[in-house]
Amino acid sequence: MRPVILQLDDSLTRQPALEAHVRARGGRVMGAQDLGPALRLWSGEATLEILKRRLAAELPECGEADLVFAGSGDFHHVTPLMLERALAQASQPVTLIHFDNHPDWIRFARGRHCGSWVGRAARLPGVARVITVGVTSRDIGAAKAHEGDLALIAEGKLDMFAWEAPDGRDEVVLEGRAWPTVAAMGETAFLDRLAAEIPTSAVYVTLDKDVLRAEDAVTNWDQGRASLDFVAQAVRRIAGGRRLVGADVVGDWSKPVYGGGATAALLKRGEALLDQPWRRPEPGRADRVNEAVNLRLLELFLESAA
Predict the structure, then answer these.
(1) Which pairing describes strands 177-180 and 171-174: parallel, antiparallel, or unpaired?
(2) What pLDDT is stored for residue 168 in this prediction?
(3) Looking at residue 110, what is its pLDDT?
(4) Is the entire prediction scored with pTM above 0.90?
(5) Comparing C-alpha atoms, which of 299, 260, 263, 239 is closest to residue 95?
(6) Residue 198 Cα to chain centre, angstroms
(7) How confident is the model over 165-212, as pLDDT tens digits?
(8) Which of 248, 236, 145, 144 is nearest to 194 (CA)?
């Protein structure tokens, strides 16, 4: 597995040990901070197309799966680009395993949003199913679920295993389907269930570190209840006996810089004020915590892909 640092913000540039480990394992560092402000939070298709072309030019296929660290969770909508690359090499159906504190399934009119990419990813040719794990967000509750791409459930493309339900119940019910929560099942029983739910022999993993509890990561978003140990166990179970065709990691805190034009920047700033915590962590601590997590994830994924 080839490790890659994709620099869309400055979060990963402040993690020298991660870069050293990536380079020591034959990995690559790709600078794209000039695109970051336009991509941050949401983006038009043109900017994503520029990034897609750069990925093709600077990260040519090498016969290995890629593990991409991409900075803030504000960039989670780049995952379909990574997934498309993995699908092209996989030549077989793939299940996308999505660890996140949010469902990332909203219907968004202005382009691609870090909270809207799941629908696009689920409908890529070759994706058999998306399995979302760890949500605690009210986005899946009765008051907000109608904003999501619920057609994914009717199409049999999405399973939603929340950590806990917004209404406190032991299951999440959407469009007539019900999934038990991780908290209700217990972590060990859930991991057995997760392994049984994967319908393909190939998997792609995308991890937003906001799925983790606050002591295990520092992000730009509200955070969930999963421990890093739980995620590590889950990745090992997912990859056991299956082909890991790629993975990406987002969720590193960085000070937001918005772009894409004056109007877009203003809209993004307003949206962030409504949706993201107002607190600003101490940057040095954020870097230390997130680098330690990234180093562990690097070893985890390389080991799991071996």
Answers:
(1) antiparallel
(2) 87
(3) 61
(4) yes
(5) 239
(6) 18
(7) 998 899 999 999 999 999 999 999 999 999 999 999 999 999 999 999
(8) 236
**Tokens 């894409």 belong to residue:** 260
Residue ranges, the chain, pLDDT below 70: 109-111
The 3 state secondary structure assigned to the chain is CEEEEEECCCCCCCCHHHHHHHHHCCCEEEECCCCHHHHCCEECHHHHHHHHHHHHHHCCCCCCCEEEECCCHHHHHHHHHHHHHHHHHHCCCEEEEEECCCCCCECCCCCEECCCHHHHHHCCCCEEEEEEECCCCHHHCCCCHHHECCHHHHCCCEEEECCCCCCCCCEEEECCEEEECHHHHCHHHHHHHHHHHCCCCEEEEEEEHHHECHHHCCCCCCCCCECHHHHHHHHHHHHCCCEEEEEEEECCCCCCCCCCCHHHHHHHHHHHHHHCCCCCCCHHHHHHHHHHHHHHHHHHHHHHHC
Name all domains of the chain by residue range, CATH numbers in brackets: 2-305 (3.40.800.10)
Rounded (5°) CA angle 251-255-257: 105
Distance of CA 195 to the CA centre of its chain: 19
Which tokens belong to 48?
A: 């994503």
What sign has the CA pseudo-torsion 81, 87, 88, 89? positive
Q: Please count the other Cβ atoms lying within 10 Å of the Cβ belonging to residue 160.
A: 24
CA distances to 67, 164, 166, 182, 236 from 169, in Å = 36, 8, 8, 11, 29
Cβ atoms of residues 276 and 220 within 8 Å: yes
Distance CA 124, CA 49 (A): 16
Which pLDDT score, from 0 to 100, does residue 164 have? 94
Residues with Cβ within 8 Å of 239's Cβ and at least 6 positions away in sequence, in order, are 203, 304, 305
